[in-house]
Amino acid sequence: MELVNKRSVLALCVVDITLFIISLSLDVSVHRGLLPSSQGIWCGIFYLIAGCLGLVIIYVKQDLPIVKTAFIVSCAAALCGVIAAGLSGRDARQLSNTCNFAFIRFICDDVYTIWALVVVSILAAIINGIFAFFLYPNAYSAVAGNPA
């Protein structure tokens, strides 16, 4: 089996791993009480796994089970990106509503960090959707049966 779009998949893997780093740093930089579910960390792990599996496909081995696993993980990472965007958007909206009446202003600066996490999560969902689109023909290609 030969992967058709190696350069595109490589670029998407690098972007995916970079999005993991950005998502992790944004989530860690927010005060702990403001993001109760830590969606940047948990969803970022899926971005990292999808990116690493893509690199394994390109540089190590292009077995069908690895490609199928990468396809499933990239779909899960796209779903996690949508979930993280929704949760982060909810948290940012709640924080911005409370900042109108808050006496502690330094916590309100984290609203922009949480909105940045929303943008990163949406971008990760799009990138992983494209990554799954590139892997789909290779993950479910016709495999020769057992000759009898």
Question: What do you see in this structure?
Answer:
The chain has helices at residues 6-29, 39-59, 64-99, 110-139. 34% of the residues are buried. It is elongated. With 148 residues, it is mainly alpha-helical. It is 75% helix and 0% strand. It has one domain (6-139). It contains 4 helices and no strands. The two termini are 22 Å apart.
Percent of residues in helices comes to over 70%
Chain-averaged pLDDT: 83
Mass-distribution shape: elongated
- Structural class by SSE content: mainly alpha
The domain count comes to 1
Instruction: Report the uncertain regions.
Output: 144-148
Q: What is the H/E string?
A: HHHH
Helical element count? 4
- How would you describe the oligomerization state of the chains in this entry? single chain
The main sheet comes to:
none
- Total number of β-strand segments? 0
Q: Please give the radius of gyration in angstroms.
A: 18 Å
Estimated share of beta-strand residues: under 5%
What is the first-to-last residue Cα distance?
A: 22 Å
